[in-house]
Specification:
By secondary structure, the chain is an all-beta fold. It contains no helices and 53 strands. The chain is 0% helix and 48% strand. The strands form 12 sheets. Strands 11, 12, 13, 14, 15, 16, 17 and 18 form an 8-stranded antiparallel sheet that branches. Strand 25 and strand 26 form a beta hairpin. The radius of gyration is 29 Å and the shape is elongated.
């Protein structure tokens, strides 16, 4: 729910003194222009509005606007395009203040205002040496400030804490002010109480501030500051309520500037997207069509694959787009040409190695590359049946360097997927995890793990476990082609009888020594956990409760939970740890497309006010983000 408040930014009290309607002689603009900034699409990246306030300058009012600017070059022009009291638009240059971080600078533009001024509309822009002008025009609504504003947000700070500064007209001694904020796109909200700081340079106007520190018991527990925050400010006095909600659009605070817009193209009917490392973009539409765009946004080709696509994933080492259609795999080169097509088991999984990607099936595995994969495995296939629970199976496992371990009668068969060399180790157990130095197997009763070197010599053992299965006959969870990542073996220790909930958790063991590195509670019954392209482990919860979620467990043992049922979805993770997801709890919500970094902090978010969840999608790869929405596709880049 949105907070209940007026659509306009300010609710005025009857009898409030109004500035005279006669024309005033505002200071001459630096450069008069004819173009309203509303006509420019907002980039919100090269330049970002931070805050505005009325200050005293040379004995009269002046509008001061602070902006954040990408430090892409030494030479740059930062400015304000403004219109005072309905006059002509004009531009005025800004002044550099200080660095914000290694990539971003703070600039300020100050425009004097004549006595009796009433209203200013404005937007901010940044022109780099490339000659391209980037805008922040409040998402094509322009910013505005009015002399009669009773409450006005002047800026915010978001770091370890969250703070918002306000200017409040002193209409009464007794007053109360708040920041109404949401970290869930208004699914839930919190009221942050503001306090009086002191007077401002303007007579009759006070400085107030609202501050929030994590763990404040007076604030709703759903409010978090590790991601973006939407908010508005409000005050009550003399029996009236006043708002500044950015003219109905709300304000937004973020930890880092959003990525820069690279290109945007019209597009209708897309369902998914994928990105290659160089920025080549693949857009899936009509279930079986893939349109290919070059890194600069120029169109390359459209490919009709002739059948519904069930999944797509980019292979960074092979530099191919892998497309799944029923019981087959198709690989597309970056120019859109089909590199190969091969039959494959529907439940095949992908393992991301150090120099290649591999496809793993119940019968064996193969390296993925420029040519169609040839599955290597024992002639009789791998013994994948689970002796305790026949509804669950265990897959062969593939080490990062491409060594396959597969259970066979009498031990474990080992295949080098690059050379085809094969051997058999006299090891009792089901292959569970593999590193380049160790092979870890699980006992048939799921109660223990044992590690060996690749010659079959024992290294360590862990008992008193219950290793939950990867997937069920109902389709929950997924099979793993390995349970190790970055030298850590993960075990979902979870008694099927539910037993002691304090034991239901993710245990991380050092693959070389068997030492337990972490234990993190799973929260509820789950399946998994399998490593993905980001190097973290992913586990899916069973939908016994309302909703459905997936846990991302880092190799450090931190756990982040993402909703995946109802209308939310995780679209994928990139090798640098970024996760693209859709945060849309219900079909009528104001949903968001979000990118989280490797530490589970939001670094990009796009909100939506209408449409259906399936109308929007997002993909991330190698510092680039592509957003698919009704009518268009846009590629951004973090710089």
């Amino acid at each position: 729910m949105f907070p209940i408040r007026p659509a306009a930014s300010v609710l005025l009290v009857l009898g409030l003194a109004i500035a005279p309607a006669c024309a005033v002689d505002n200071p001459a603009p630096a450069t008069e222009v004819a173009t309203d900034p509303l006509r420019f699409p907002t980039a919100e990246a090269g330049v970002r509005f931070l805050g505005s306030q009325i200050v005293a300058a040379a004995g009269r009012d002046a509008l001061a606007v602070d902006v954040a600017v990408r430090n892409t070059s030494y030479e740059k022009h930062v400015g304000l395009r403004a219109k005072i009291d309905g006059g002509a638009w004009f531009d005025v240059e800004g002044t550099y203040l200080a660095p914000i971080d290694a990539r971003t600078e703070r600039w300020q533009i100050v425009q004097p205002l004549a006595p009796g001024w009433r209203h200013v509309d404005f937007a901010v822009f940044f022109r780099d040496v490339d000659g391209v002008t980037r805008w922040d025009n409040n998402r094509q609504h322009d910013f505005a400030i009015d002399a009669s504003d009773v409450v006005h947000r002047t800026g915010d700070q978001l770091g370890a804490d969250f703070a918002v500064d306000l200017e409040v007209r002193n209409l009464a001694y007794d007053k109360a002010c708040w920041v109404v904020a949401s970290s869930t796109s208004w699914v839930s909200s919190a009221y942050l109480t503001a306090h009086y700081v002191g007077p401002t340079a303007r007579p009759g106007v006070e400085h107030w501030r609202a501050e929030f520190q994590p763990g404040d018991p007076s604030v709703a527990p759903t409010f978090r500051i590790d991601g973006g925050i939407d908010y508005a400010v409000t005050c009550q006095m003399n029996g009236a309520t006043y708002w500044d909600n950015n003219h109905g659009g709300d304000y937004r605070a973020e930890h880092a500037p959003p990525p820069v817009v690279r290109w945007s193209r019209p597009f209708n009917g897309a369902q998914r997207a994928a990105l290659a490392a160089d920025g080549t973009t693949f857009v899936i539409s009509s279930e079986q069509w893939i349109s290919v765009y070059a890194p600069d946004g120029s169109w390359r080709r459209a490919v009709d694959l002739g059948a519904p696509i069930s999944a797509v994933e980019y292979l960074p080492h092979a530099n191919l787009l892998l497309v799944r259609i029923g019981a087959s795999l198709t690989a597309l080169a970056l120019d859109g040409n089909v590199a190969w097509t091969a039959p494959i088991a529907p439940d095949a999984v992908t393992v991301y190695g150090t120099t290649a990607e591999y496809v793993v099936t119940r019968g064996g595995a193969a390296m993925l590359g420029a040519h169609a994969p040839v599955i290597l495995g024992p002639p009789q296939g791998c013994d994948v049946d689970d002796q305790v629970d026949p509804d669950n199976t265990t897959f062969p496992v593939v080490a990062p360097s491409g060594r396959l371990a597969c259970r066979v009668a009498g031990g474990v068969a080992v295949f080098d997927l690059a050379t085809g060399a094969a051997t058999t180790l006299a090891i009792d157990g089901y292959p569970y995890a593999a590193t380049d130095d160790a092979l870890i197997v699980r006992a048939a009763d799921r109660r223990a793990l044992a590690a060996y070197d690749w010659s079959g010599n024992p290294r360590w053992a862990q008992a008193d476990l219950y290793l939950a299965p990867d997937a069920s006959k109902y389709g929950w969870g997924r099979q793993c082609g390995n349970h190790a990542s970055a030298g850590i073996v993960i075990a979902l220790d979870q008694d099927p009888g539910f037993g002691d909930p304090a034991r239901h958790g993710y245990r991380g063991f050092d693959a070389a020594t068997g030492e337990q590195r972490f234990f993190a509670l799973a929260g509820e019954f789950a399946y998994g956990a399998c490593p993905d392209r980001d190097g973290a482990f992913w586990a899916t919860h069973t939908p016994y409760k309302y909703g459905w979620s997936a846990d991302r467990i880092s190799t450090r043992g931190t756990v982040a939970s993402y909703p995946v049922a109802i209308s939310s979805r995780v679209f994928g993770a990139s090798r640098d740890g970024a996760v693209a997801r859709r945060d849309w709890m219900y079909a009528m919500d104001r949903g968001r497309l979000v990118v989280d970094d490797a530490f589970d902090r939001e670094i990009f978010s796009r909100g939506y006010f209408s449409g259906k969840p399936d109308d929007v999608a997002i993909a991330v790869e190698n510092g680039r983000v592509v957003v698919v929405e009704p009518g268009g596709i846009t590629q951004y880049a973090f710089e």
